[in-house]
Amino acid sequence: MIRNLLSVGGFTLLSRVTGFLSLAMQSAIMGAGAVSDAFFIAQRLPNSFRAIFGEGAFNAAFVPSYSMAIEQEGDAAAEEFAGEVYTLLLASQIILLAIVWTLAPQFVALLAPGLDDRPEKFALAVNLTRITFPYLLFITLFVLHQGALNARGRFALPAFAPNLMNLSVMAALAVAFLFPNAGYAASWGVTVSGALELGLLMWQARQIGVLKRLRKPHWPRVRDFFIRLGPAIIGSASPQIAVLADTILSSMLPDGGVSSISYAERLYQLPVGVIGIAAGTVLLPEMSRRLAADDEDGAHHAQSRTMALTVALAAPFFIAFDTIPELIVAGLFQRGKFSAADAYAAGDVLAAYGAGLMALVLIASARASFQARGDTRTPMLIALAALAANVALKVALFRPLGAVGLATATSVGLWINLAALVGVALGQHWMRFDGVFVKTLGATVVACAFLTAVAIFGRSSALALGAHFGALANLVALAALGVAGALVYAGALIGALRAGGVTIRSLRR
Length: 509
Description:
By secondary structure, this protein is mainly α. It folds into 2 domains: 2-7 and 12-433, no CATH class; 434-509, no CATH class. Helices cover 84% and strands 0% of the residues.
C-alpha cells in the first residue's frame, strides 16, 4: 500500500510542479486583475461540481461498493454494476451541462454578486463559464474510471493524468494572441484537458477489460450505491459550499480580491494533492478490501501508518506557509503583471490558509474510517456542523479582515471537521493509533522546531544571497531557504525517529 501511496504522491507531485508552472504563466500573463478574476470565477463552477459529485462523493460511494462486488460476487457482476453507474453519470452530466449553458448568467450572478456593477467583467465571466463547464462532464467520467482502476490496484496513470490539464493550459496560453484575451485561451485549455484526461483512462480501462460499455441501469443493483451517494454528496458539498462562499464574498472586493484567494489556495493545495488526497486515494480501497475480508487489525494498521506518513510529509509545508508566506508568493509569481503588492496580498491569505493545512491533509484519511465501512452519513453530519461554523466565521471576519478573514474561517472549519471525525471514530473503535504514529508525531514536532528556526533566522541571509541575482532575487532566496530547510528537517526527523526506535523501513511497513 505504501508503494501505491508513494506512486500516487510522486505523480501528484509532478502534477503540482506542472501546476505551478501553469499558475506562474497565468500570473505573468493575466496578473491579478479583472481578466484573472473572471477566469478563476469561471473555473469555480466546474471545479466545485467536480469536487461535490466527482472525486469526493463518487469515490466515497463507488469504491467500497465496487470493491465489495469484486470480492464477493466476482468480476462480471462488478463490471455490470460499474457499467450501470457509467450510464447514469453520463446522462446526469449531459443534463447538467445543458442547464448551465442555458442559465450561465444566472449561475455567475449567484456565484459572484459583486460583479453586478461591473458589466464587462460579468460578461467575461459568463463567456468563460460556458467554455469551461464541459470540463465537468469529462472529469466526472474520469473519476469513474479512476475509481474502477484504483479498486483493481491501478494508481499510477490516474495520478499522472492531471498533468495534462496543466500542460493544456500552458499550451493555450502560449498562443493566447489567437484569442480575445488570455482568459479565453486558458479556459479552452481547461476544457481540452478534460477530454485528454478521460481519453487516457479510458484507454487503460480497455486494456484490462474494465468499463468496456454502458449498461442499462437496474434499480436493485444500484440502490445501495445511491443510498451511500446521497449523504456523500452532502458531505462533499460542505467544503465546496465554503469555497463558494469565499468566491461570493471576495467578488465584492476590488479587482484582484478573487485572484489573491485563488493564487494562495492553489499554493496551499500543493501538499493537499501530493500528500492528503494521495493518502485518501490509496487508503480507502485498501481499508475497504481489508474490512471486506474481516481484517480489522490490518485496516487499523494501514490507516495509522498512512496518517503518520501524512503528518511527517505535510509538516514542512505548514511551517513554510506560516513563516515565509510572502517570500513564497513573491519568489514564485512576482513577475510580469504580478506586482509586489499582489504578492503581499496573496501571502497574507496563504498564511491564513496554512493554519488549517495539517487538518486538511488528514481529513481524507480520517474519513476513510467511516467510508470504508459504508457509512457516509456520519462524515456528512460532521461536515455540515463544520460548515456552519465556517460560514458563520466568514460572515463575521469578512468585513474587518477581507480575504484573510475568509481564509482564517476556512482553517477553523477544517480543524473542527478533523477533530470531530477522529473523536467519533475513536469512540466507535473504528480508528486506533499505534505506537509508531505517536512516535512519528513527536519526531515531527521536534523536526518542525528546527525548521522554524531555519525559516526565521535564515531569511535575512537568503535574501542577501538573492540580492545578487537581480529580478530572480526572491526566487533564489526562496530556493536557498528551501534547500537548507529541507536538509535540516530531514536530518532532524530521521534522528528523532531513530531516537524513538522507529526506522523508515518500519514506517513503510
